[in-house]
Write a structure and sequence with these properties.
The complex is a heterotrimer. Chain A is mostly helical. Chain A has 25 helices and four strands. Chain B has one domain. The chains are: A mainly alpha, B mainly alpha, C mainly alpha. Chains A and B meet through helix 15, helix 16, helix 17, helix 20 and helix 22 of A and helix 3, helix 4, helix 5 and helix 11 of B.
Chain lengths: ~625, ~300, ~220
């Protein structure tokens, strides 16, 4: 435990050190997350032995003694933090060009502070420490998102993050104060406030609105940190709170499980559906993060129900599935965000309808993106599959339980898993296909060159982890029997594919393989613009889901005989942002503007207000 | 050698050896209905060997284009290896392998779509877009069907699912068979979801994805198509006739071959009767598959 | 004691006059008279002690002579129009003044009075009413200089509170004179910066223009 606390202090020190504008500031800044890897043995030990480290009364705080606690769940969430944090730091160091994208000292400072905040959150054992860690993480995260603060859209996105985050923090504060004093009286309010407050950071619909705005605005590796780790902190707190804190008080009604399940299902479906129609690379990834969060919440909800009705094994299975899903998807989402970051860094283009053919120009980023997509889609043999596998098994086991509620919940979860799995295949093939495959769709991409070769190292690390943690997971944690065979099957798949590829070379015709013009359907497209674009690719799905998506379709048709210039543009906005939040804020703003007369600007009026209030108080008290 | 290994090898070998034959048989039935001679039953074998001997033209595509058919093929081979035979589990079988089966069947779709997009040709991309569109609707149906079978059997292994002594109510079984039939038709690119004989690019779904392949890759694509058809048909047969798992192993594979041929030929009959569905109408039929699986579950739980 | 009550009554009348006088100069005469009485009452009520007399003299000089002259000087400096410009019409002002008097009397009846029965009713009501009048003048007039006058009345009221038995030895009178200094500063400031109306450029009509500009910018 001391190791962890020392590490936190060291990281904060690195942050401050990095903020000095010296030449070595980048290295000092990166030293923090790198040194944090020293926590790995502690984490491993905790998971392996299933123990909980506690420490009390270290520093007497103003309000209560503080208590540190580091158990198995905390260790599970620490793993993505260590991995992703390190690769983010590495990425930041390797980002040398172009000039305006290089990481300034303030970035390193806030990176270290965010990292420290997250570590505090994970080793916290008392409510005050949770809130402290959460707020440090939120604030420093805001500044991280606004690293490129000179651009207006980055600032706007940062403001949305900030406003949503602090609205939700208000709810969290309500929950915390009520928990301290009135836990048994209003448990439902506490639960809902916790779900909304922490769930918002995790990406739970309908509180997720900051995620699709903030992800494209942040630099590539910061998006990875946000998606891979910060969202998990939200999940961690909801999990911790409903599972542990309320259990200590002794309240755990069943409808909470249904609520978690419903919120998770809504998020999964919403994320998957909205991800379909995005054309910005990182917005699509942001929505896929929302979908992952939804799946995890469904798992937590079903596990909670299982525990409530006394099915301990089911709960263990589901929670193991959630934990593995979280770790694996943190890795593959980070890989995706960082590859996207490399691509956007080199080409300065982030619109999928303008990208294409990136594999030929930026091979490592291309491979990273494709592997990341394959992993995130939840397909064997990569690591994203394991979590889904366990969750699916949990659903089937839930169907076999005798309780009607659990059965219905399992049916819902199963259907949503299947639907979102299919939708994610669409989204990720679109992402990888449009960005990496085919030909370039604009000059900027055609002419881009690989100038930042060092950027491939963080990507390589994550790629290796992606593949390896699928196959080698059982060696590190004690898992049920089934997972050994699963890893064997996945390894077998990789071996078969590799073997076939090798055999292919030995075939008689292999020496005469060429890479010439293909048939291409008989037409010869001269420009990459004639390819399918992202919107075309998902057009069957979007027309099917027209009602939900509110997809904008602007087409100026030419009515004349001879063709003339015409235009088609498509667009998509976040449905909840546009139809719930913005109208609400517009109403609020309108109401406030109407109340403007209240602030007349005349001194006499203000004196009148004071007098009236004083008089009122005087009369009241008499 | 343990039973598991025999089952594994037997399943893989029968699939690899007999799938092209069965594919040819389905084609023959259709040709007979349409009053023409058509290619011979074993034509697919010749096609595959021919392609394997050729060299390939990769156009301007990348590694993914070359990997895609391999991944699709290997995942199907592994899926075939997972299936049980005659009441005995495969050596690779484990608790929960039904989800691995479902996922493996999706792997090919993902990689083939990527490969199609890689060529940069719009026709291929159109095929890919439609294929993943079908996939969105077929995947939940498949998951739910497998879940129904698992619940009915009380366990989570493929072996248990198809076992003979499950108290399988009739209504439940009919729904499961209907769902599996629709899934089979969609996944094997049969009518009413796709016309396997069509040459019209704008009408292709799975074929559209494969148009730019040549040489051994194309051979693998053809082979994978036949394997997929075999696999889905065998799932259908095993679900419809649990008695198959009571057969001793030396009778099981011939019986499987007979059953699968029946299914594929029946599919051929259906193809001649039904026309191709227009694209906007496809979802309701695939959702019908999902609905049948759901009804099956409800029948089982509350019937 | 018998002298005080008429004096208090005159003070009340002078406050009531505030709401009706039209010309600024007359306002100032009323305020000066008020100041004189306010300065003289405490020594009479408390007994003629030397320090009280010194204080009274200082207060007299400041409240009745220095400050009104300063304010007059400001009025001439800023060349303002010589009349009070109220926001509320005169009849309404009278109503509000009367209401204020009633309120002050009512509050006095409800308050626990210090010193038992010795304290007259009026002795508490008058300062309260003066406070009210001062605030009322500040609120309902548009000119900056009338605000200064209002503040002066307000401060006179505070000074008068020192008449009460419990507060006689306290610092209130001295602090009150400090507040007078503040009033003087206000008056000087008005003269120096030519503040004709209270914050000219934040006049109501101008504020509407500002409003429209802001809204135009948002769209």
């Amino acid at each position: 435990m001391f190791v962890l606390i020392v590490l936190i202090v060291f990281i904060i020190a690195c942050g401050f050190g990095a903020s000095l504008k010296t030449r070595a500031s980048a290295f000092i800044g990166a030293l923090g997350p790198t040194a944090a890897l020293a926590a790995a043995p502690v984490v491993y030990g905790v998971i392996r032995r299933g123990e909980t480290l506690t420490l009390e009364n270290l520093m007497p705080f103003p309000f209560e003694y503080c208590r540190f606690e580091f158990g198995v769940e905390d260790a599970v969430f620490m793993i993505p933090l260590l991995i992703v944090g390190f690769t983010v730091a590495l990425f930041g160091i390797c980002l040398k060009k172009p000039e305006h994208a290089v990481m300034q000292p303030h970035f390193w400072f806030f990176l270290n502070i965010t990292y420290a905040g997250m570590m505090i959150l994970l080793i916290a054992g008392s409510v005050t420490l949770y809130i402290i860690g959460w707020e440090i993480m939120s604030w420093a995260g805001f500044f991280l998102i606004c690293t490129y603060y000179k651009r207006k859209e980055v600032r706007d996105a940062g403001i949305i993050y900030f406003v949503t985050g602090h609205l939700m923090f208000l709810l969290i504060l309500i929950a915390v104060f009520m928990f301290d004093y009135k836990a048994t009286v209003y448990p439902s309010i506490i639960f809902l406030a916790v779900l909304a407050g922490f769930g918002s950071r995790a990406g739970l619909v309908p509180f997720h609105v900051w995620l699709p705005e903030a992800q494209p605005a942040a630099p590539g590796h910061v998006s990875a940190l946000l998606a891979g780790v910060m969202c998990n902190m939200g999940i961690y707190l909801v999990w911790h709170f409903t599972g542990i804190e309320m259990k200590q008080v002794g309240i755990a009604p069943a409808w909470w499980g249904y609520c978690l399940l419903g919120a998770g299902a809504a998020s999964a479906l919403y994320g998957a559906i909205m991800a379909l129609s995005q054309h910005d690379l990182r917005r699509l990834l942001a929505y896929s993060v929302i979908e992952t969060t939804g799946v995890i919440f469904m798992g937590i909800g079903l596990g909670y129900l299982a525990e409530h009705y006394g099915y301990g094994d089911l709960k263990a299975l589901l929670f193991l599935g959630c934990a593995l899903h979280i770790i694996n998807h943190a890795v593959c989402k980070s890989l995706l965000f960082m590859s996207a970051g490399v691509i956007i860094n080199q080409t300065e283009v982030s619109d999928m309808n303008l990208l294409g053919g990136v594999w030929k120009r930026l091979p490592v980023a291309g491979i990273g993106l494709v592997l990341g997509c394959a992993a995130a889609a939840g397909l064997p043999p990569l690591n994203g599959f394991i979590g889904e596998f366990l969750l699916f098994n949990g659903c089937v086991a839930g169907l076999q339980a005798e309780h009607g509620g659990i059965q219905i919940a399992s049916i819902v979860m199963l259907s949503v898993l299947g639907l979102s799995s299919g939708l994610m295949i669409v989204c990720f093939t679109k992402l990888a296909g449009m960005t990496v495959m085919g030909e370039a769709r604009c000059k900027a991409v055609e002419n881009c060159v690989q100038s930042n070769t060092a950027l491939q190292y963080p990507l390589l690390i994550l790629m290796v982890l992606s593949v390896a943690s699928g196959v080698a997971m059982p060696f590190f944690i004690t898992v049920p029997e089934a997972l050994w065979k699963l890893s064997l099957c996945m390894a077998l798949l990789i071996a078969l594919a590799a073997g076939l590829l090798g055999l292919r070379r030995l075939l008689p015709g292999a020496k005469r393989d060429i890479a010439g013009r293909a048939w291409e359907g008989g037409c010869q497209p001269e420009s990459g613009r004639l390819q399918y674009s992202g919107s075309s690719y998902v057009q069957p799905m979007t027309s099917f889901l027209k009602l939900l998506l509110r997809f904008r379709w602007n087409y100026r048709q030419s009515e004349k005989i001879f063709p003339e210039k015409t235009e088609l543009s498509t667009g998509e906005d976040d449905v909840i942002l546009e139809y719930v939040y913005r109208p609400f804020f517009r109403l609020l703003y309108g109401g406030c503007m109407k109340m403007r007369w209240f602030q007349g600007g005349l001194l006499s009026r203000y004196i009148l207000y004071i007098v009236l209030i004083l008089l009122f108080l005087l009369v009241w008290k008499l | 050698m343990s039973t598991g290994v025999i089952v594994l090898l037997g399943n893989v070998l029968t699939a690899l050896l007999l799938a092209p034959l069965v594919w040819g048989m389905g084609g023959k039935v259709r040709d007979w209905f349409e009053g023409r001679r058509g290619p011979r039953v074993t034509q697919l074998y010749y096609d595959i060997f021919k392609e394997l001997r050729k060299s390939a033209n990769y156009s301007s595509a990348t590694l993914v284009f070359r990997i895609a058919p391999v991944m699709g093929f290997c995942s199907l081979v592994l899926a075939a290896g997972l299936m049980p035979a005659g009441g005995a589990a495969s050596w690779l079988g484990f608790a929960g392998d039904l989800f691995l089966l479902a996922a493996l069947l999706n792997v090919g779709r993902f990689w083939m779509a990527l490969g199609a997009l890689d060529t940069g040709v719009s026709g291929n991309a159109m095929g890919a877009s439609r294929d993943v569109y079908y996939g969105v609707m077929v995947t939940p149906a498949l998951f739910l069907v497998l879940a129904v079978l698992a619940v009915v059997s009380g366990g989570m292994t493929l072996n248990g699912m198809f076992a003979v002594d499950t108290a399988y109510r009739f209504g439940c079984r009919i729904m499961v068979v209907l769902a599996l039939l629709l899934i089979y038709l969609a996944e094997s690119a049969r009518m009413p979801f796709e016309d396997p004989d069509s040459r019209y690019a704008a009408a292709m779904v799975k074929q559209g994805m494969a148009r730019d392949y040549s040489g051994p890759e194309y051979g693998l694509v053809l082979y994978a198509g036949a394997l997929k058809s075999w696999l889905f048909a065998s799932i259908l047969v095993l679900a419809a006739l649990p008695v198959m798992s009571a057969l001793p192993l030396y009778l099981y594979w011939p019986a499987l071959f007979a059953g699968v041929s029946l299914v594929v030929m029946g599919g051929g009959v259906l193809e001649t009767i039904l026309g191709r569905l227009p694209m906007p109408n496809v979802p309701q039929y695939l959702l019908l598959g999902y609905g049948s699986a759901l009804l099956a579950l409800i029948f089982w739980l509350y019937g | 004691m018998e002298l005080i009550n008429p004096a208090l009554a005159v003070i009340i009348i002078s406050c009531l006059l505030m709401s009706v006088v039209n010309r600024l100069k007359n306002c100032l005469y009323a305020v000066a008279m008020q100041g004189m009485l306010v300065a003289l009452i405490p020594p009479v009520a408390a007994g003629l002690k030397p320090e009280a007399l010194v204080l009274a003299l200082a207060a007299l000089l400041i409240k009745a002579l220095a400050l009104p002259h300063l304010i007059l000087y400001s009025i001439r400096e800023i060349r303002s129009r010589r009349e009070v410009e109220p926001k509320i019409s005169y009849p309404l002002s009278i109503v509000f003044s009367m209401a204020g008097l009633v309120l002050a009397l009512w509050l006095t009846s409800r308050m626990p009075l210090p010193g038992g029965g010795n304290t007259g009713y009026l002795m508490v009501a008058t300062p309260l009413f003066m406070l009210y009048t001062g605030l009322f003048v500040m609120i309902s007039r548009l000119k900056a200089i009338t605000m200064v006058i209002g503040f002066l009345i307000f401060e006179n009221g505070i000074y008068l509170f020192s008449v009460l038995p419990g507060l006689q030895g306290s610092m209130i009178p001295a602090l009150g004179l400090g507040l007078d200094l503040l009033v003087g500063l206000f008056a000087y400031g008005v003269a120096r910066f030519s503040i004709n109306r209270s914050f000219d450029n934040l006049d109501r009509s101008r504020l509407n223009v500002l409003n429209a500009e802001l809204e135009g910018e948002e769209r």
